[in-house]
Amino acid sequence: MKITAIYPGTFDPITNGHADIVKRATQLFAHVIVAVAANPKKSPTFTLEQRIELAQIVLKDFNQVTVQGFESLLVDFAKQNQAQVIVRGLRAVSDFEYEFQLANMNRTLNSEIETLFLTPITQYTYISSSLIKEIAALGGWVGDFVHPAVGAALMRKTR
């Protein structure tokens, strides 16, 4: 059975931790859709189009991965794309409560879609897009945490 999974997020910006979760998901599923949420409530640094473009650059070597933007309910997006699984990343125990609530809400909205939690490699467990943006804004080097194209885009945004 060929299973399609969706890995949703704001990806503002996509980090090496996100890419690691995608890598792990590609080992489990035939097709992985990286679903970039519009999410204007978060006041993203990058536009939806920029976040999609950066994700496509970072993930270009994964043949079974596609990147799409979305502005709807996640379960509706999953159904439209015939996805059976939602992949969510967990960095620390502190992520679990929020992710558990999301998973249960999504299950209530559509019981046919399962949520699977994956953890990144240990060296990426402390990385978050918010921290990366803060480091870049203060002139710090983010090369260990993001793809070079993302680092360059952050430099242009913060200088």
UniProtKB/TrEMBL annotation:
The keyword Nucleotidyltransferase applies. Its main location: cytoplasm. GO terms for biological process: coenzyme A biosynthetic process. It is an enzyme of class 2 (transferase). GO terms for cellular component: cytoplasm. NCBIfam families: coaD_prev_kdtB (TIGR01510), cyt_tran_rel (TIGR00125). The gene is coaD. This is Phosphopantetheine adenylyltransferase. It comes from the Bacteria.
